[in-house]
Design goal:
heterodimer; A: 259 residues; alpha/beta; Rossmann fold; six-stranded mixed sheet; 10 helices; 23% strand; globular; disordered N terminus; B: 256 residues; mainly alpha; 9 helices; 0% strand; elongated
């Protein structure tokens, strides 16, 4: 049985839905007096890579944490495949999260587990019907995807920054999510490794046909990956367009990011 | 900081810990149970703590006997030494000292581990991968500490009594069988049962406070250190408060 068949079997043979995969409507989020998101709206189409740009503290990470349900917005709707994640209970959220992958800025690998155990963790908890052989195959495939098959018995502390990012990406992809949220995937990496990660993200996106929201400050990463760029300013979607459109904009607020 | 704001902080924290405990009973004890993780925690918390509990128990029994002997000799009742030491160890010193050692070792370890997982987003990562971190991390640890501390206390008491036997034999010669017969004849169920039952609450307090502090850790590595430290301090204080309450309760129930 191939991996796609395993996934379909585990999910009850779900068929893809047409239309945008994520629709955010009039989202508000504040922390005390600090308004982070104010009437923010966005939609992401199938297989589209949307990069969210913005200053530090502008609310980019808050936005994707609201999408995955780690933070609860004060107001507004977040529809993922047509279902509002803001009104889901814990069980519904857990089910919805199998379709959404999240790559943390600091990787968030479980440091008490080996690489193999890190990859097996989501598999064993979601697809409990999988046997040892199938789990082994999926872990092998995930490691092959990121070119790190030799690290399976290593601990995260033994890996370099770039390798950690690759393993984190492999773990994010192991459940074959349809949407991936990347929180600054190339921050803290040297330029060469950062380009390799960009390339890896694009390759895997094409292979698994995922839709993505990418938070990034790295303009090379934005140029390489983005189908569309969103500029998040003062809690709102200030600009929305392709990299080229925004790069050639004469608006100083947009221009400052492209200089 | 004024007394009023300190009192406000104290009440605020008490409320949050109570809510955390409420969440444990309402969510943590519902199926599906994390049996594998629970067994792993029982091994780490119970089995791995025994050498330390055993060593401190042995020294405590030995020293207590050596310290009590001169007083009993002055009253001419040194033959009652095993009885006195036995009751003191089983009823009070064994459970409390074991719980304090346990709080130092396990409370700090849980506080630091969960604190570190919190600040490196590993808890969030668990959450987004569809695993309830409260059930996986908190419920398993709190249940493990509540189950393991009574067992450790019984084992610690046994080692401590052996230390007391060695202490008795430093100045006089006593048969080991005679020593333990004397100890057990002086003990009743009302000495043993309340002492063991209260350690379930001590274990619960250590696990709950360690998890609460770790789960709410902030401010990076400094916050992790602070979580570990305050987990030990707060759970140690709670052990004494719970001890006071259980003594009052056993008095009221006429179990003394």
């Amino acid at each position: 049985m191939n991996i796609g068949a395993i996934k379909n079997k585990a999910e009850g043979e779900q068929q893809p839905i047409s239309g945008p995969v994520i629709v955010i409507e009039h989202l508000y989020k504040r922390f005390g007096a600090n308004i982070v998101l104010e009437d923010f709206s966005l939609s992401v189409e199938r297989e589209e890579n949307v990069v969210v740009l913005g200053k530090s503290g502008a609310g980019k990470s808050v936005l994707i944490k609201c999408i995955i349900g780690l933070l609860k917005p004060d107001k507004g709707k977040i529809l993922v495949f047509g279902e509002d994640v803001t009104s889901m209970d814990e069980d519904e959220l857990a089910k919805a999260r199998t379709k959404i992958g999240f790559l943390f800025q600091a990787n968030a690998l479980y440091d008490s587990m080996t690489v193999r155990e890190n990859l097996e963790f989501p598999l064993r908890r979601h697809w409990t019907s999988l046997g040892e052989t199938e789990v082994g195959k999926m872990v092998k495939e995930a490691l092959e995807n990121v070119g790190l098959t030799h690290t399976s018995d290593m601990m995260p502390a033994e890996l370099s920054g770039g390798m950690l990012k690759r393993i984190a990406l492999a773990r994010t992809l192991i459940l074959k999510p349809e949407i991936i949220l990347y929180d600054e995937p190339t921050t803290g990496l040297d330029p060469v490794t950062a380009r390799e990660i960009d390339q890896l993200i694009l390759t895997l996106q094409k292979k698994y046909k995922t839709s993505s929201i990418i938070i990034s400050h790295d303009m090379n990463c934005v140029r390489n990956i983005a189908d569309r760029v969103i500029l998040l300013l003062e809690g709102r979607c200030y600009a929305d367009g392709t990299y080229k459109t925004l790069e050639s904009s004469s608006d100083p607020k947009i221009n400052q990011f492209f200089q | 900081m004024s007394i009023i704001s300190e009192a406000k902080d104290f009440l605020d924290q008490t409320g949050q810990i109570s809510r955390f405990a409420g969440r444990f009973f309402s969510h943590g004890l519902k199926p599906k149970f994390e049996i594998k993780e629970l067994l792993s925690q029982c091994y780490l918390i119970g089995y791995k703590s025994f050498p330390l509990v055993g060593l401190t128990g042995f020294i405590m029994g030995l020293v207590l006997t050596m310290q009590l002997r001169p007083s009993l000799v002055s009253y001419g009742v040194q033959s009652e030494l095993p009885v006195m030491v036995g009751i003191a160890i089983v009823r009070e010193i064994g459970p409390v000292i074991t719980a304090l050692i346990f709080a130092g070792k396990i409370g700090s370890s849980i506080g630091a581990e969960l604190g570190s997982m919190k600040v490196t987003e590993q808890i969030d990562s668990m959450d987004v991968s569809g695993t309830n971190p409260f059930k996986y991390l908190v419920a398993t640890r709190v249940i493990a500490t509540s189950l393991m501390l009574p067992i450790l206390t019984i084992l610690g008491d046994a080692v401590s009594l052996f230390g007391a036997y060695i202490g008795v034999n430093i100045k006089s010669v006593t048969n080991i069988r005679f020593f333990f017969v004397q100890v057990f004849e002086s003990l009743s169920y009302s000495d043993v049962l309340p002492a063991v039952i209260k350690t379930i609450f001590f274990g619960f307090a250590v696990g709950l406070i360690g998890c609460y502090k770790g789960f709410n850790s902030t401010k990076g590595t400094q916050g992790v250190g602070s979580s570990a430290n305050s987990a030990v301090v707060l759970s140690s204080v709670l052990i004494f408060i719970l001890d006071l309450l259980t003594v009052q309760l056993t008095n009221l129930l006429g179990l003394n």
